[in-house]
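User: I've been trying to design a sequence by hand for this structure and keep getting stuck. Would you show me what you'd pick, starting by listing the structure so we're on the same page?

Assistant: Good idea, let's start from the same input. This is the structure you sent:
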């Protein structure tokens, strides 16, 4: 039994300290395979782990840059912001939460609308921002997506909606739920004009978004292992009192059961969507 116990960590030599400072912040850990990845390599691979192909979440602007030609796009309706129609308060006021989220994400709402092209095909693209209150669908999200659909109707440009959402925004109550019908009605008009609509579901796509426009595409595709569903697995298990199968509510499971048309790796999305648009335009 030792008489003395060292409580402070051992001193680092100047060389060890310098090495730690040089490498700090240059690597990130994959949450799936636990390997460390050089951030530059991860970014160059569209934030897909080069070791296990785990798809990291990316924000709306990075999504648009990765999909659209040369990473260029023209944003529209970016000025629209949510109000606080119900004066909602939980741990903090909804108004305060909105202000903080706008500041932290750099976007005014949980969806970014843009026009651009994919391999020469002109498109209107609405990309959801999961970092904005969980990508929840409030009144302004519904309005912006509806405007994107209407622009597709008027310009005859194909529509792409990238979903990443926890569902309806509870802070806006029934006003949020009304967006499901509003967007679906606009998509019916798009269908009448025979303008292609491709729905891309990413991790996670749940709740009212899944129950409406995310599953109404002419082509419904998803990234690998994306969580897609309405209610969460825990709620379902407690309701039906049964153990759910492995991989339940993941994109591969939905593909196997006919809920999706394809599961496509992020690195192949641009080419896949371009090929689909070429086929739909014949």
């Amino acid at each position: 039994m030792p008489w003395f116990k060292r409580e402070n960590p051992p001193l680092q030599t100047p060389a060890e300290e310098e090495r730690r400072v040089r490498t700090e912040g240059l690597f990130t850990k994959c949450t799936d395979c636990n390997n460390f990845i050089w951030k530059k390599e991860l970014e160059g691979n569209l934030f897909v782990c080069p070791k296990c192909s785990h798809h990291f979440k990316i924000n709306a602007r990075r999504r648009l840059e990765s999909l659209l030609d040369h990473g260029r796009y023209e944003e529209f309706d970016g000025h629209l912001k949510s109000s606080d129609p119900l004066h909602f308060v939980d741990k903090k006021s909804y108004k305060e939460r909105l202000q903080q989220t706008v500041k932290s994400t750099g976007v005014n709402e949980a969806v970014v609308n843009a026009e651009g092209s994919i391999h020469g095909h002109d498109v209107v693209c609405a990309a959801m921002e999961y970092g904005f209150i969980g990508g929840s669908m409030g009144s302004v999200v519904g309005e912006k997506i509806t405007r994107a659909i209407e622009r597709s109707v008027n310009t005859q440009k194909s529509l792409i909606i990238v979903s990443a959402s926890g569902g309806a925004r509870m802070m806006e109550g029934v006003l949020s739920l009304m967006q499901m019908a509003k967007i679906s009605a606009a998509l019916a008009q798009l269908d009448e004009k025979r303008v292609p609509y491709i729905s891309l579901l990413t991790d996670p796509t749940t709740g009212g978004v899944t129950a409406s426009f995310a599953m109404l595409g002419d082509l419904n595709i998803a990234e690998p292992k994306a969580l897609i569903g309405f209610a969460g697995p825990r709620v379902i298990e407690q309701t039906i009192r049964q153990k759910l199968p492995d991989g339940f509510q993941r994109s591969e499971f939905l593909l196997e059961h006919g809920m999706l048309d394809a599961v496509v790796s992020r690195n192949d999305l641009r080419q896949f969507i371009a090929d689909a648009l070429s086929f739909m335009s014949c």
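That's my pick for every position. To get oriented when you compare it with your attempt: The chain is about 35% helix and 15% strand. Residues 173-192 form the longest helix (20 residues).
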